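User: I'll paste a sequence; please echo it back and then give the predicted structure.

Assistant: Echoing your sequence first, then the prediction.
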Amino acid sequence: MRSRFNKYLLSFCFVLISSTMFGHKPPPLPTGPPNPGLPIDGGISFLLISGIAYGIYELKRKK
């Protein structure tokens, strides 16, 4: 009997929480200047190559 009451109470709490979560308005959109859209091209290839070289260096050093 007690576990049945706990199940109903827990279900009722979930309904209350979900209704309050959906009751809020979404935050306003930012009105500042748009982001410049920075390119990711030259730096990523350098980081990838240097990471591979460092990994090879560490593997050779451990042997």
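The CA atoms of residues 3 and 9 lie 10 Å apart. DSSP finds two helices and no strands in the chain.
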